[in-house]
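Hi, here's the filled form for the chain we discussed.

Project: internal
Contact: R.S.
Residues: 290
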Amino acid sequence: MKKKNGEKKPNIVITFLKEYAWQLLVGTGLLIVAICLICIVNWYIDNRTITKILFDLDNEVIYEEVVAPPESENVEIEIPIPEEVVEEPKWNDYLDYINLPLISVDFTNLKEKNKDTVAFLKVPGTSVNYPVVQTKNNDYYLTHAFDKSYNAAGWVFMDYRNNIDDLSDNTIIYGHGRLSKTMFGSLKNVLKDNWLNNKDNHVIYLSSEKENTLWQVFSVYTIPTETYYLISKFGSEESHQKYIDTIKSRSIYDFNTEVTTSNKILTLSTCYNDDLKLVLHAILIKTQVR
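And the returned structure, exactly as it came back:
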C-alpha cells in the first residue's frame, strides 16, 4: 500500500526502543549485578588469601622484645638528653619511650619465603604487625601479596628510593587501606581519640637484619593525593626545615615532639578514602645494632 502524501515514515530506532526498552533496562541491570558479584567474589578471594598468608606468618615469624637500656653499648640514642631536663611533657614522654624494649625479628624464615623482605613493622594500637618488602619500583607490591601471587590487597612495602641499611632523611612505607583491616586498613585508628589520647601508641617499631629501631610519632593527618610528603631526600637545610614545619602543622593532634633537620623521619602512607591519603610521621629516637 502506498503512503498518503505528507505521511511520515516511522523512525525505526524509536520504534525499537519503545518495544525493547524494558529488555535493555533489564539486561543492563543484570550486567551491573554480574560485575558487582565478580568484584565481591574477587575481593573475598583476595582477603581469604591474605588471611591465610598472615596466619602462616604468625605461626612462623619469630620476634621478641629486647630490653635495651639507653646506656647499653650497642644502643644509640638519636636525640641527646639535655644535661638539665626541662620538666615539659615532650621530655617526660621521650624519657619513657627511650626506655621501652625494642622488637627483634628472626628474618631467616621471612627471607626464605620472600627475598624482598627488608624489615618488620609494628604500629601499636593497630593490627599492623607485618614484614615489609621492597623492590625496584613502587608498583609491584600494590597488586602482589607477600608470596608474590597476584592480589589486589598488595602488601606493605618500602619506597624503592630508600635503603633500610642507610636511612634517608625520610623513609617511606606504603600499604593499601583495606576495609578488612589488613595491610594498612587498621591505620585509620591513629585518627581516633582513643588512639591519640593513649601515649603508649605514639611509638613505631621497625626491625631490620642489622638494627632494631624505635620511632616517636609527631604528626598524623589526611590530605588529598600529593607527592610533597613523599620526598625522601632534601637538597638544602632550608627546604628540609620547611618540610618539617609543613607536615607538623598538618597534624590533627599536638604530639609535643620536637623535630629538627638532624632527625631521621619515618612516613607511613595509605588511602583513607577515594579522595584522601592518611599519613603518619615519626622520628627515630633509638637504635640497637644487632
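Let me know if anything looks off before we file it.
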